[in-house]
């Protein structure tokens, strides 16, 4: 038996990640569908309200714009979509990191060691006052399993998540502009519609989905090794070597049960 996503021969952590990934994608799609319908209805209601009281001597004919703006508290459709897209992208990167940590924990849960006569469980080394290991620990530990998880696409996605989380998407430098500009989406746009220093990074559903796909590709490449270490027969020689290397690199520690 080997790892097979179609037949469900995957790690438990993969199953959990896959459900979260599906929910993120559904949220992105449904948010756009439902918000578009609601905004369209609100716009028509504003037009109808103006038409009901329209007086050519008092009105210019575009007062429904202000009425619409008031009804949505200034949150126009493009702003709403940006917020939902940013939310999904941040959630997707977080789900990816959670997978990396929990997959390693799932591997370590299978094994026990004896220290000074006491049976102990294995766990990832975690910085003091933190509940999760650092990024470097995750990368190095997965490398021991022969998984490359710190790819260029992952680095870019994590940096974009940082920009969205800590700068609310603001492109503060020309370096950030060049790194996160979506040249493909900007093709054919007027200058005013292109990204600029001081403005927010452009997202869009297609870009968010491409990012989720890149992260998903890394997860799917990593899980066969995780599954093998969890469900492989006994404590095989490659498992012994991996555990020894994790210990040597000070990536794991023993904890009394």
What does this structure look like?
The radius of gyration is 25 Å and the shape is elongated. The two termini are 31 Å apart. The mean pLDDT is 93. α1 (12-53) packs antiparallel against α3, α3 (77-109) crosses α5 (152-166) and α3 (77-109) packs parallel to α8 (205-231). 62% of the residues lie in helices and 6% in strands. It has nine helices and three strands, in the order αααββααααααβ.
Quick recap:
The chain is mainly alpha-helical and 257 residues long. It is built from nine helices and three strands, in the order αααββααααααβ. It has a three-stranded antiparallel sheet.
List the helices and strands and how they pair.
Layout: H1 12-53, H2 63-71, H3 77-109, E1 112-115, E2 118-124, H4 135-144, H5 152-166, H6 174-180, H7 183-186, H8 205-231, H9 237-248, E3 252-256
Antiparallel strand pairs: 1-2, 2-3
Helix pairs in contact: 1-2, 1-3, 1-8, 3-4, 3-5, 3-8
Tags for this model:
257 residues, mainly alpha, three-stranded antiparallel sheet, 62% helix
